[in-house]
Amino acid sequence: MPDPNKHAVLNKQGFKIAKTCSTCEWWKPRMGHGNGNWGRCEVATYSHGKHTGNMTAGTPSIGTCKRHVVSLPVVEREVGPDFAARYTEEA
Length: 91
Known about the structure:
- This protein has three helices and three strands.
- It has a domain of about 40 residues.
- It has a three-stranded antiparallel sheet with strand order 1-2-3, with no helix packed on it.
- The chain is of the alpha+beta class.
- The two termini are about 30 Å apart.
C-alpha cells in the first residue's frame, strides 16, 4: 500500500517524473552496450557519413526533445503504476 506520508512530502516538493528520452515511446535503450544510459530515438533519423542509409540517432536517457511522447507503460515498468499515475508529466 502506498505510504500517504511519502506522497504528501513528494507533493509538497513538487516532485514529478521528468519528460526524458527514457520515458518516451520513441526511445529504445541499448541493451548490453556497456552504458545503459544511452539508446536510440526511432524518430530522429539521419544519414550517417560512414554508412549507407538512414540511422537512428543515439541519445542519452536524460535528454528530451520537442517530439517527446510519454509512454505510461514504460514509466509504470520503472516505478510502478501508482507512482506513474501520480507523478508523470503529461506531454
